Amino acid sequence: xxxxxxxxxxxxxxxxxxxxxxxxxxxxxxxxxxxxxxxxxxxxxxxxxxxxxxxxxxxxxxxxxxxxxxxxxxxxxxxxxxxxxxxxxxxxxxxxxxxxxxxxxxxxxxxxxxxxxxxxxxxxxxxxxxxxxxxxxxxxxxxxxxxxxxxxxxxxxxxxxxxxxxxxxxxxxxxxxxxxxxxxxxxxxxxxxxxxxxxxxxxxxxxxxxxxxxxxxxxxxxxxxxxxxxxxxxxxxxxxxxxxxxxxxxxxxxxxxxxxxxxxxxxxxxxxxxxxxxxxxxxxxxxxxxxxxxxxxxxxxxxxxxxxxxxxxxxxxxxxxxxxxxxxxxxxxxxxxxxxxxxxxxxxxxxxxxxxxxxxxxxxxxxxxxxxxxxxxxxxxxxxxxxxxxxxxxxxxxxxxxxxxxxxxxxxxxxxxxxxxx
Length: 422
Ligand SMILES: *[C@@H]1O[C@H](CO)[C@@H](O)[C@H](O)[C@H]1NC(C)=O
Ligand SMILES: *[C@@H]1O[C@H](CO)[C@@H](O)[C@H](O)[C@H]1NC(C)=O
Ligand SMILES: *[C@@H]1O[C@H](CO)[C@@H](O)[C@H](O)[C@H]1NC(C)=O
Ligand SMILES: *[C@@H]1O[C@H](CO)[C@@H](O)[C@H](O)[C@H]1NC(C)=O
Ligand SMILES: *[C@@H]1O[C@H](CO)[C@@H](O)[C@H](O)[C@H]1NC(C)=O
Ligand SMILES: *[C@@H]1O[C@H](CO)[C@@H](O)[C@H](O)[C@H]1NC(C)=O
Fold this sequence. Notes:
α5 (153-167) crosses α9 and α6 (278-296) runs parallel beside α7. By secondary structure, this protein is of the alpha/beta class. Strands 4-5-6-3-9-12-13 form a 7-stranded mixed beta sheet, with helices on both faces. A 4-stranded mixed beta sheet has the order 7-8-10-11. The chain has helices at residues 3-6, 29-46, 63-69, 135-141, 153-167, 278-296, 339-348, 361-365, 392-405, 411-415; strands at 83-87, 121-125, 146-151, 176-178, 190-195, 200-206, 211-215, 226-233, 245-248, 264-268, 271-273, 303-307, 355-358. The protein binds 2-acetamido-2-deoxy-beta-D-glucopyranose (6 copies). Keywords: Membrane, Signal-anchor, Transmembrane, Transmembrane helix. It holds the Pfam family PC-Esterase.
């Protein structure tokens, strides 16, 4: 009976399988309700929808039928991160111009982009389907909860995307507000958006390295202006503990220009590690993160995700040149892998708290069409790192949501999430 739920369950290839606690897989009455409810609502939403497939971008004959009829895929055959992008006219999931939480720099259509195929792509795993988001159900599930995003601007984009997606389910949008009345800015450390009629918050903590960034130690070499304490998690980490959903990312800032170029070097304990390679520093930092999670996070309460590296599509990063394409790439061109993502898998495999790795690197690698390019708040500079909204980060959130609604969730999530409203 839980084949539907399992169809969205994570299954990474072979050795890199992240761990789930087995007991959360146990089927129960709630699961049954969820399955029946989702299938019913799914058919309702999708049943009369029209979707089609751009033939040269897919490799499966079944794309067309899958979302309508076939839920009988076992988790053994479904890796949700292995699939294709298919055109689907029922996308996008929201209108950025009607959502006050999309920052202007990501609202490409409003910033002058005229082609709009890029907002209509849905991710289709090879052997299963990602269910269409049922916003009302997600709002109910999140009642009284705290969702926390931690990371860099890519995390902020995903935070914005989730808020906008959920706001489409509300009649009265004025019930949603930033708790301190703050505007979204690039440097801000904390943003918390409250859905007051559902008593939950979606929060963002800016922590681009996850570990502590600190002033340079005295008497160090002059080029050292600051250090990253690789063995110490960011000071604001205490704010992340008491949450129900915790979604991390890091990667974009681990480049020479943003580290050594800014006079930032690595430190472990009291010793400066001037010659340390970035990849090995990243591994040390992620291990620090992992032991923090294992020590501080209660897996019965908090569902932890780590989103892997977001590929960029620069033609020449040094010259900041890039061309946003009209369509997704047909081949990943080597961007489907990343050392950062590999490190995350290795570390997560050795943790005691279950962490779901959102392996979005390969799927996003095709999306050279989805970056902000020159349709940002700085049109003079092209940008092939950040993503337009609506767009690719919405799909990352669809995955998060399918996990949260799936069978492998902490018990507290289903116990108090209002599924009886189905
Ligand atoms: C679902 O699809 C798979 C392959 O795509 C097929 O083997 C199976 O028979 C289908 N099941 C149903 C119930 O249609
Ligand atoms: C989004 O909303 C704005 C303002 O309501 C409207 O002008 C625009 O046409 C909408 N865009 C799309 C793609 O629906
Ligand atoms: C809102 O949620 C918090 C937990 O996040 C809970 O303690 C509080 O009682 C809830 N308030 C209402 C009015 O339900
Ligand atoms: C980018 O441009 C710089 C300056 O012209 C050049 O030195 C470098 O080789 C280029 N990089 C790539 C990847 O083409
Ligand atoms: C990419 O954009 C540059 C300007 O940034 C332009 O000169 C070039 O022709 C474009 N290349 C392609 C393949 O469209
Ligand atoms: C896994 O964790 C154990 C103890 O927590 C440690 O001794 C071991 O080195 C770790 N293995 C890897 C591959 O990181």
